[in-house]
Amino acid sequence: MLVSKNSDTKNYVQHKHRRLHRRKEITSLPSTAQFILRLFNRIIPHYIPVAIKLALSIGILLTLVMTLLGAMIIHKQTQLMRNQIKLQGSTLVQTLAKSLGDPMILALPSDKALSKNDPLDKRALLLTLKTMITQITTSPGILGASVYSDDGKVLSYSGINPFLKDAPYEKQRQRYLTDRLKNLEWKWEDSPQGYISAITFISPIKLQNTTFGHAVVTFNHELLDNSIAGVIQSIIIATLLMILLGIIISYVLGRRLTRPLYDLMEASRQIGHGNYSYRLPEQRRDEIGYLMKSYNTMAQGLYQKAQVEDAFSRHVSPSIAKEIIANMDRNLLSTKHVHASVLFVDIVGFTAISESMSPERVAHLLNEFYTGISKVSKLYKGTIDKYMGDCAMVVFGIPEQDEDHVFHSIACGVAFRKLMLRYNELREQRGLTPIHFRIGVNTGDMLAGNMGPAERIQYTVVGDSVNLASRLCAVAPPDSVIITDNTYNLSGLRLKLKALKHKCIEIRGITEPVNTYMVQDLHERYTDKLDQEIDRITQELIGANSEQLMAE
């Protein structure tokens, strides 16, 4: 059985756990709140760039400020225009009242009551009054002008005023015809001229502090309304343009300010992918520049650490190196009792082989041997404990946890046997010396941990089970895998292996002989994929050592 490892499983499980936890929190709320939260989660993205947040924040702040400022300007402009039209109207009606301060004019009858029998001077004065009123109504923005006697009778009028027949203030004439200056804002929706919005100014006509009549001038209030609407429209357009310009400028500035953050995000992503050589340009003289400098320093430290770990992993197994580095802050000499499996493999007749070969070829032969056992060990979670001359020691179940370490250790031995048999066929075809080997595997309790003096420690396993595996390797026949009967009789193991009873071996240090089994192969359901892996590793060995094979 080959062991595969999915590097994304842990992240997927954590993400799924967070989603389930968030879903449980939502489902615990009332139905309305659940609907709102789900709608909010669908509409609002989970990631909003800082530039957009900055633009939105400045846009909202600018909107509030410009809205408040626009409202103040509109209020001031409206008040100013109202005061101007009131001043203009008051001035005009008072001027009219002063020009009509002749008692003879005010004593005239209404122009409708004038007859041909009246004296010529009366008719002339009345015509003068009529002309004066008509001229006033021809001025822009003036809807009408009127003159009333002290008893409220109209002497002359032109245009409209609020006291005409059917006008809104027809029956309230006496209320406004007083001895003080007044103004009246009013509307006449169904006038003969259609809808009218007006403001009327009323001034008493006095002579020696005696009121003889009233002058009435009506202005078109729509001009003021239109002017105010124009001012409001201009201010709104200016406000919107300022808000839009502010959002655009803030977004551009935000993008410029956050560009280093995106660089830092990319740098963090590169670090996450193991690219410790990635660097940021240190051209800023601010806090972000200091942060970039700190990142480069950190990246350099991680790069050096990775180089140290890589060099360390070349001398010890990567899993052991990771275990040691992860526990640097603990007691380096700490050990623990474990139940694990150990495999020993050595080259048969290595002394005789090395005497007939040059040191370079001996080193090359050992490298082939070590490479083969290393690649096969990775298939079954095996950890190379150490290389000892022509012997290699592989442990299973420690430091990496493995519930099936017994089977994996034996399967590793079978896989290495198949690999070397195929590789030896190639060597023999080229007239080279085949590499014969012995393998001993044992399972049991042992002591694992960092051992040795404080200045030079080594992670390894020791104990009687380890010694027994080494002795089995020493007495095993060439090109064979030997295990004890205790290992073979473990639960379920017989169904996975093809093994023959070997012989009872007397081993030094053990009082009773040890019954052994010779493992020939694995069960068929475990060999299909194994054969493919053996073919792959064989081709890798041939490709890596083709020049040396030809040289030998």
Overview of this protein structure:
This protein has 552 residues and is an alpha+beta fold. It has two domains: 48-273, 2-Layer Sandwich (Beta-Lactamase), CATH 3.30.450.20; 327-551, 2-Layer Sandwich (Alpha-Beta Plaits), CATH 3.30.70.1230. Helices cover 53% and strands 21% of the residues. Strands 6, 7, 8, 9, 10, 11, 12 and 13 form an eight-stranded mixed β-sheet that branches. A hairpin with a 6-residue loop joins strand 9 and strand 10 (458-462). The two termini are 36 Å apart. Mean pLDDT is 79; it is low at 1-10.
Short description:
The chain is α+β, with helices and mostly antiparallel strands. The protein is built from 15 helices and 13 strands. The protein has 2 domains: about 50-275, PAS domain (Beta-Lactamase, 2-Layer Sandwich); about 325-550, Alpha-Beta Plaits.
